[in-house]
Design a protein that fits this description.
Length: about 425
C-alpha cells in the first residue's frame, strides 16, 4: 500500500495515478515528463523517450509518467493515445495535485519513483523538439555509473536561455564553486538516494513547487555533497520564449529561489573560493541550435518603463556610479549603442541579492523592480553578441561567469 506524508497537499499524486503505481509494484527506471499546454510536442517527447528506454535499457522495467498541470488543450488526451505497448514500457498520464507549477509536477514523479523503488529517475521537458533516444541514454547511463545527479549540457543558440546566461549559471559557479553550465536546464537524471532526499525536504508548498524547482534541485545536490556530472545532449530546440515577453514569472521564481537559497546556505557558499569543472559525459548528440528573432526594442522599452516606475528604488539599491550608467542607458536613443558593462551587471545582481536578504517583508516586490534591469542586460547582450558565433558567445558567457567569481568578495562584504 502506498503510504504518503501529511501536509496541506500531503501528496502530489491523484487517486488514479496512485492505483496504477500500486498495481505496477516496482520499476527500475522512471522518466517524468512535466507537461502544460504541450499538445504539439508531447507525442514526440513520449515516443523518443520510449525509443530510448527500449534501445538502451530494454533489460529494465520502465515507467513514463506524464505529470500534467491541468492543461485544457489536448495534451493529456494525446499523451494517453500514444501507443508504446510494442516497447513493453508502462505509461501513466495524470494531473498532479498541489501548487500549480513544474515543481509539483516533479514531486508527483518523485513520489512514484520512491514507491516503485526506482534505481534511476530522469525528467525531460514536454516542449522539446530536439530530443532523441540518445538523450535518454546520456541522462540515465551516468546514474548506473555511480553519479547521483546528471545535468544537461546543451549546444544552445546564443540568445536562448537568458536567465541561465545572465544569472543562474553565474551564481551557481561563483557561489557554490561548480561550473554547471545549465543548472536550470530542465532535463535531468537522479539517483534513488537523491530523490529520497528531495522528498524529505519541506519545500513543496513554496516557489520551489513552481519554476524554482530546477535551480533548487541543482543547489541541493551540490550542498548535500552528491556526485554530479553533465551529459552531452546536443542542441536544445524547444518552443522558445521571447525573453522580453514571457519570462517575468519565471524570472521571479527562479531568481527568488536562488536568493532564498543564498540565505539558507550562506554558511556553505561564503567559504567557497574559485570553481571547479564538472565532468561532461556521454557521446555528442549532433544537432545544431536554430537561431530565432529576439525583440530588442521591447526589451529596451521594458527597461525604460522600469526606470520611470522604479528609478527611485534603483537609486537606493545600486552603487551611485552604476546608477549613473543606468541613467545614461535610459537617455540613450539609439538601440545599437545600448551597452550595460558586465561589472555593472555583476554589482546589480549582488546588491539585489543582498537587498532581498535584508528586506524583512515583501521580498518579491523588491525582485519585481529588478526585472527591467535584467531586460536591459539582455538588450545589451543583443548588441555585444550580434556578430559573434554561438561558440564565441559561449566564450563570452564563461568570461562573464569568471567576473562574477572574481567579484564574490564584493558580495560577501555587502552580506556581512
Amino acid at each position: 500500500m502506498l503510504v504518503l506524508p501529511r501536509a496541506r497537499f500531503s501528496t502530489a499524486l491523484r487517486e488514479d495515478a496512485r492505483k496504477k503505481i500500486e498495481n505496477l509494484g516496482y520499476a527500475d527506471i522512471v522518466v517524468g515528463i512535466p507537461s502544460y499546454y504541450s499538445q504539439f510536442t508531447i507525442s514526440h517527447v513520449v515516443e523518443q523517450v520510449a525509443k530510448g528506454l527500449d534501445k538502451y535499457f530494454n533489460n529494465k522495467k520502465c515507467l513514463i509518467f506524464v505529470s500534467d498541470g491541468g492543461s485544457t488543450d489536448d495534451t493529456r488526451e494525446i499523451a494517453q493515445e500514444i501507443d508504446i505497448s510494442k516497447y513493453n514500457i508502462e505509461k501513466i498520464v495524470s494531473i498532479y495535485r498541489g501548487i500549480p507549477g513544474k515543481g509539483s509536477a516533479l514531486r508527483a514523479v518523485f513520489e512514484a519513483a520512491e514507491f516503485l523503488r526506482a534505481e534511476a529517475v530522469a525528467t525531460f521537458d514536454s516542449d522539446l523538439k530536439s530530443i532523441t533516444p540518445e538523450w535518454v541514454k546520456n541522462i540515465i547511463e551516468p546514474i548506473y555509473e555511480g553519479y547521483d545527479y546528471v545535468c544537461p549540457y546543451y549546444k544552445r543558440y546564443k540568445f536562448d536561455g537568458t536567465i541561465t546566461n545572465t544569472i543562474a549559471y553565474n551564481l551557481t559557479r561563483a557561489l557554490y564553486g561548480y561550473r554547471i553550465r545549465q543548472p536550470i536546464g530542465g532535463d535531468f537524471g537522479m539517483s534513488r538516494k537523491l530523490i529520497k532526499d528531495y522528498l524529505d525536504k519541506d519545500v513543496w508548498e513554496t516557489d520551489v513547487a513552481k519554476f524554482g524547482i530546477d535551480i533548487w534541485m541543482t543547489t541541493t545536490a551540490i550542498v548535500d555533497g552528491y556526485k554530479i556530472c553533465q551529459a552531452r545532449l546536443g542542441a536544445k530546440i524547444h518552443q522558445e520564449k521571447d525573453p522580453g515577453r514571457d519570462l517575468s514569472h519565471m524570472y521571479r521564481e527562479v531568481v527568488g529561489t536562488i536568493f532564498r537559497l543564498m540565505e539558507n546556505y550562506d554558511y556553505f557558499w561564503k567559504k567557497i573560493k574559485g570553481s571547479k569543472d564538472v565532468p561532461i559525459v556521454g557521446d555528442f548528440v549532433g544537432i545544431e541550435p536554430e537561431p530565432f528573432e529576439i525583440d530588442q526594442q521591447s526589451l529596451i522599452e521594458y527597461f525604460k518603463l522600469g526606470y520611470n516606475n522604479f528609478g527611485g528604488v534603483w537609486r537606493s539599491i545600486l552603487e551611485p556610479d552604476d546608477f549613473k550608467i543606468i541613467e545614461k542607458l535610459f537617455m540613450e536613443e539609439k538601440p545599437e549603442n545600448f551597452i550595460m558593462p558586465i561589472e555593472t551587471w555583476v554589482r546589480i545582481v549582488y546588491r539585489y541579492a543582498d537587498y532581498f536578504h535584508t528586506t524583512p517583508r515583501q521580498k518579491f516586490k523588491v525582485l519585481d523592480t529588478m526585472i527591467p534591469l535584467y531586460n536591459g542586460r539582455v538588450a545589451s547582450l543583443v548588441n555585444e553578441l550580434k556578430d559573434k558565433t554561438d561558440e564565441e558567445a559561449e566564450e563570452y558567457y564563461n568570461k562573464q561567469a569568471e567576473i562574477f567569481e572574481n567579484m564574490k568578495d564584493y558580495l560577501i562584504k555587502l552580506w556581512d
